Amino acid sequence: MDTQAKHYDPSKVEDKWYAYWLQHKFFHSEPDNRPAYTIVIPPPNVTGILHMGHVLNNTLNDVLIRKARMDGKNACWVPGTDHASIATESKVVAKLKAEGISKEDLTREEFLKHAWEWKEKHGGIILSQLRKLGASCDWDRTKFTMDPDLSEAVINTFVYFYKKGYIYKGVRMVNWDPEGLTAVSDEEVIHRDTPSKFYHMRYFISDGKGNATDKYIIVATTRPETIMADAAVCINPADERYHWLKGKKVLIPLINKEIPIIEDSYVEMDFGTGCLKVTPAHDVNDYEIGLRHHLPVIDIIDDHGRLTADAQILVGEDRFVARKKIAKMLEEAGNLEKTVDYTSPIGYSERTNAVIEPKLSAQWFLKMDALAKDALESVESGKVKLIPDKYRNTYKHWMENVRDWCISRQLWWGQRIPAWYLPDGSFVVEATPEAALKAAQAINPALKMEDLRQDEDVLDTWFSSWLWPISVFDPEMPGHPEHKPNADLASYYPTNDLVTGPDIIFFWVARMIMAGNEFMKEEPFHNVYFTGIVRDKLGRKMSKTLGNSPDPLDLIAKYGADAVRLGMLLCSSAGNDILYDEAQVEQGRNFCGKIWNSYRLVSGFKVDASLQPSEVNKVAVKWFQNKLAQAVETVEDHYAKFRISDALMTIYKLFWDDYCSWYLELVKPAFGAAIDAETYERTLGFFEDLLKLIHPVMPFITEELWHAIRPRGAQETIMTARTPAVQPYDPACIDAFEMAKETVIGIRATRNQKNLPPKEPVEIRIKTGYPEEMAPVVAKLACTGDIRFVSDFGEDNGVSFLVRTAEVFVVLSGLVDVAQELAKLEEQLQYQEDFLARVRAKLANENFVAHAPEKVVATERKKEADSLAKIESFRAQIKSLKEQQ
RNA sequence: GGGCGCAUAGCUCAGUCGGUUCAGAGCAUCUGCCUUACAAGCAGAGGGUCGGCGGUUCGAAUCCGUCUGCGCCCACCA
């Protein structure tokens, strides 16, 4: 863009450089002899669109991958999308419904055709959005969890675990989603405290012939619509209140069905009425009790959550409608004692938000014990580091209490379970129909293909995602009998870092570790960096209904991707929620403006090759070189500890404060004057180093200016320029400059207080203990006249201040308000005397001197000495001022 | 119900081994400046009983206990 423009315009820069990077395949990686640095993207839903959470996650990923690339690593960031079975399928169902097509009217093949069309149309939008953000993914490696080869990996994995004896089919209580019409795993159920009612119902005692006596017991439930499925009423055998009930039978209200009284210690005597209605078909615990007492299972709720004919009454009604109606019926029948408001935890489907119905059904499960044990060890041993490590506890707890994974889903969008049923009801598990037929014929040679019926269910999406760090490199998967070595896998596995949200620590992170251990005998990554949830500035979750979630693409259009990236990172520390505020993106934009303008200044310098560097330039260059080295060291340390926002802030301040406010102001030639060639060259070099430090965070503006500041070849990019190396530096030099800064600030503050124009030269006298080589710095930046190092300030009017222990005196031609100066000095003296008293008290404490490390004691003695010097200085000043009065 | 974590300036957060003049940063605020890179800027300034209480220690923002207020995860008391 036009280098004279006062304001940086990202829209003229960002697309241009992204196209350049793509054109030259700078993001592409092939195995070579450099050490690899690998990240696999947490695959977003294929039909998803970019939200602020993606922006945070992918910015962090991109910072890490760009940093690694500039560190000389063979950086490979594999992008891709997830088929998200239930979410995508429900979107497709909704879309078809809007077109008047019902899923039930379609065959599996017809439905999948619609689904794939939808995927082709909407899939991958999010990946193109990531390009706008600057994500340096290796797009040539883009994968989709339902790509044919990745699906094959999933099927092979199923067969592998089945043959290993880890996968079994069983009838179990599962979490049924009546809207998604599928079972979901325990992890996909969200429990929320939900207000409901506790219905206290009268169950009359039967006379033994199915007639009600006038005696009754009270049973409390939150689900009166399930009473028709009751198989018993249960009491605690130790509950003396109900001993008279033993051996009796009661009648279910409304339908007058006789059910037995049973005893089980599961029942809590002090909860509810102490009488529990046992409904084996519709409650997990009741099912267990039913098993123990051989109770019949009466299923009265269908897949859609409606009452079935077995309910006898309210047939076809939705469970919640039925609940209201039955309450009324109970009341009218005289069976309702009372209703009490009650809040209880209710399970909801993560995807559809439907209330989960515990339902007995045949599902496929993966045994987790052995896998979880190894995966726990991976984290406990530190082979996988969780950042922040507070998640270790959460992880451990889950791994130690894990239950078998329900991996079947009653959906069509996904990998179909490779189990084939024989006419006799038995089944074989094989990767292909051909293999299945062969296996079936081994049982019964007469069988033909058309005799086999494949299982209707598909696999849980996470059953494909957990292979992601392996399958993106080698879909054939180690563990497969004919597996051949694969160069990509050998080179890129294990990946290095994983950046993801803590909400999928069990869904995804833990299971990837399991798959890695199982198939690779090695964990899939070394570090897992957990981001927080992006919230609005009021701390609310971002949601469509609240309308508090900005569209990242709008933000990028308004402020530029660099600004958005910096804005996100500014407020992100690992594991903490992000309170997003557009002001942070503005700060990012402002930083772009600062960088841009500093470039305009530097590029506009007139250079005179005949000039020798001035003293001030020499000091400035020497100082900034040290300062830069120190900052590089700090930044590297922050990155190594995944303190990304700290690294960023270090760089931000290095550029804005140290380079712009101090360094450039020092070497900036006077109006119309030129800069010497040597200093100019160093200034450009520093600028380049700074651009390189900033690049991982703000890739676009840094590429633009890196090209602008020096001539570059047609193939060159800052992307592969080397990060400034860690160099030794001289802390004494930095410290001396700090004193100069304090002096300059002191003089400027004095001007402010005394209403002196900023550029009117003032004379400065400084007493001993000062780095005299800094005089030119002070002179230039504080616009002083003569600076003299003296032992006595003499008789001039003026005011003084302390820099450490060195007294700096500003000569003022006008009148000084002696009383005001005295008051100021008295106050400082008082503070210093108090301070000294505290230090001395400490030093007088024998315990302190005896116990504290020598270094700490020495520091206290230094404090004492410094304080004494200051006190002496204040006293002398006060004395001198009093003499003037 | 069980477990984990958090509480520091108006806001968002650092504070690494208990010890450096340690009480910090960024943003916001206030004051003065349209100074020839940048007003999306420059220069300067103010602002905190480190949630409360108790303990350990020569020494506590930091360790322990407890209380209060938040947050997260797990969970089958109907």
How many DSSP-defined strands?
A: 31
Low-confidence stretches: none
Total count of helical runs of at least 4 residues = 27
- What is the end-to-end distance? 63 Å
Strand order across the largest sheet: 6-5-14-16
Strand portion, in percent?
A: 15-25%
**Radius of gyration in whole Å, from Cα?**
37 Å
Q: What's the main sheet like?
A: 4 strands, antiparallel
Averaged pLDDT, please?
92
Pairing-aware structural class of the strands and helices? alpha/beta
What spatial form do the alpha-carbon principal axes imply? Answer: elongated
Helix content: 40-55%
In brief:
This protein has 885 residues and is α/β, with parallel strands linked by helices. Helices cover 44% and strands 17% of the residues.
Description:
This protein is α/β, with parallel strands linked by helices. Helices cover 44% and strands 17% of the residues. The protein has 27 helices and 31 strands. A four-stranded antiparallel β-sheet has the order 6-5-14-16. Strands 10-11-9-12 form a four-stranded mixed β-sheet. Strands 29-28-31-30 form a four-stranded mixed β-sheet, with helices on both faces. Strand 10 and strand 11 (258-263) form a beta hairpin. Helix 20 runs antiparallel to helix 21. The radius of gyration is 37 Å and the shape is elongated. The two termini are 63 Å apart. The relative contact order is 0.09. The structure holds one RNA strand of 78 nucleotides.
